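Structure tokens please, single chain.
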Amino acid sequence: MSASLPFDAVLFDCDGVLVDSEPITNRVLRDMLEELGWVMTLEECMATFVGKAVKDEAAQIEAHTGQPLTPEWMAAFRERRNEALDRELQVVPGALPAVHAVHAQLGGRIACASGADRIKVELQLAKVGLAAYFQNRIFSGHETPRSKPFPDVYLAAARALGVDPRRCAVVEDTVTGARAGIAAGATVFGYSPGGLSHSSAAALREAGVAQVFVDMAQLPAVLAGQVSHTLGAAGA
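Here you go.
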């Protein structure tokens, strides 16, 4: 256990927690769904898909478009999405110093556990300068039996680190991800700075997170229990 953090490991979500990817990904998704006949605003698309894997929403997409979600369409979506991310992606403000501090305090016992495909996660972490902190500790929900909100990806990350998931902190920004971390037995901290890219503070509290915070730069202090009223503890 770290002298300053009451956890043996910290497991980070990626999209919305480490990188500001959701507006980019959902703009590409909105455009491609419109090409299939499902017309939405970007805001409507984000309200529908943020925190969810597109592949897991096939039934909903097929119901709105009347067309099957083919492997070819998914491959084209990922290619267009990755091109846009490579051009435009930015790090979440405060994430670089926060990850650096937590990595140092825990002797490197951190991981990235995302519901996204591995190529996307690795591209994003490399793009914003975070890849070195997560080498060989990236876990994708596409490679586990079940995606979030099931706990599989977090259990896989804890197992690889050799840490009891009940001794892990999870950092999430959506209800879907928070439920996955809680189901794994971890203590979940909800990042909710506002906006469509993240679940609301109220929704995260309702999901059962231990605490909601608004500034990623404060994460080390939040994990250490030094900040207890960033947006109030869960249930406040």
